[in-house]
Each structure stands twice: as structure tokens, then as C-alpha cells.
Amino acid sequence: MEGRFSQEGEPIINLKVYNPFKSKSETLSFLIDTGFAGGILLPFEVYLKLGLQLCEELKSKGRLATGFEVELRTSKAILVINGEEILCTAYTTLGVMKPLIGRELLKKTTLKYEPKNGKLELDLDP
Amino acid sequence: MGKTVAIKNVDIELYRKIKAIAALEGKTIGEIVNDALRTWLSLKVNKYFEEWLKLEECYEINYDCLKQNLSYLFEKHNGKYVAICDGKIVSIKSEYYDIAKETAQKCERHALIVKIEKPLRVRTVDLGFPVISVGR
Known about the structure:
The complex is a heterodimer.
Chain A: E1 4-5, E2 11-18, E3 25-32, E4 40-43, H1 44-49, E5 60-64, E6 69-81, E7 84-93, E8 100-101, H2 103-106, E9 109-114, E10 119-124
Parallel strand pairs in A: 3-8, 4-7
Antiparallel strand pairs in A: 1-2, 2-3, 2-6, 4-8, 5-6, 6-7, 9-10
Chain B: H1 12-25, H2 29-44, H3 49-77, E1 81-85, E2 88-93, H4 96-106, E3 112-115, E4 124-128
């Protein structure tokens, strides 16, 4: 799947995300973030739109690079990459500005990152 | 230009740490306090804050139910998923998708779905650099 670079040079990929019962979906521009260890991080309003509060897990603790800790609501979501549906952990907290895709999912993919050529590809490993 | 404000009961240990960090980052304590106040305010005035609080209340009720039933669940349903809403266990199943579908039909405001396995613990997730708004 082809991604793109934002004006600020951020690697972005558009992916469809469903709730685990597949009643609602959203197509979101995810920032590829290798500093984030989880599956996806969603703005709280998107989390609510998808109804992920209806399948919450125990809360998690999010640790920022600065050492600051935040409480994370934790749920599951289905992400579609190359037509394949992958169940992953979805997190949110108040004030999340943009959706992130993190290492829990990235470790199942091959990422081609060539900012000089404006090329960004994310493909699910067989 | 900022104003000088005297604040009582500041934790002296916290103040010392902030002073040390401020020196390291070449900032004034005032700048750091302003950053902290902006972050705190951005969380409190977030338009979804009320919604967050409502969910929080539901979560606590469902979490209390989980805690009260934990020994029974470990004894009888270890390895399975339990769904709790409105402070009651509404389903116990082996497969995640089955319980998620059933829960979505039965629950309206909030549901807690937990796999019963030891240890039940709070996960810590590295977030990298801050992705939360500081309300600038």
C-alpha cells in the first residue's frame, strides 16, 4: 500500500479501521510512528465514533519519551492492510491530535521509507 | 510579560526537580510552569471531557464487578473472556469475536471485556514523543 509524506515530512498512510463487531468503520490518515509500541492510537472522538467503549479492556499506562505517564483507555480494533483484516490494540486518551500506527502492527509489515524519493510503502508480510 | 504569582503549598521536591530540569533545558521555571498549566487546561477544557467522565464512571462500576468476581472467574473460567456492563457479568465465552458481537448487542454505554488469565495487570505502552495537544 502506498503512503505519502505530509508537508512537515511525516510518513502518512490511509487505512480503514473497524470496531471488532464490524458495525462501524472509519478511514483515517495514520502517522507511522516507530516510537509508539502499541497497535493504534486514536483521537478520543474517533474512538467514540467507532464505539470502542463497548469492548474496552483494562486501562493501560502510556509512557512518553519525556518520562511523563498518561492513562490510556484500551480496546481492540480491526485494521485493514492490503485487504487483510488484523485485530490490534487500540488506545486513546484526551488530547490525542492525530491517529498513530505503532510497532505492534508495523512488526507484521515491511515498510519502505524513501523520503528523498517521496516513496512510502507499507505491505503486510506473508 | 508574565505576572509574579505567589502559590502556597507547592511540593518542595517537585519544585527542586523542575528547577533542575529548567536549568538543563535552558528554560525558566515560569516557562515550565506555563507549559504544565497549558497541558492541564487543554485536558480539562477538551470538549469531550464530559463524555470521558461518563465513561470513567461506567468503567469504575464494571471494574469493581470484575474485582468482586475475580476469584470465581479464575476458578471456573480461566482462559476465557468475560464481558461486564452496568456492573453485571453479561457473557463468558472462549472466542474474542463472539463475545465482542454479543456485548455490542447487549450493552449501550460501556462494556469491559477481559481475558481471565493470571496475572491481570496494567499494561505499559511506550508512546514516544508527546502526541497530546498543549493548547497553544
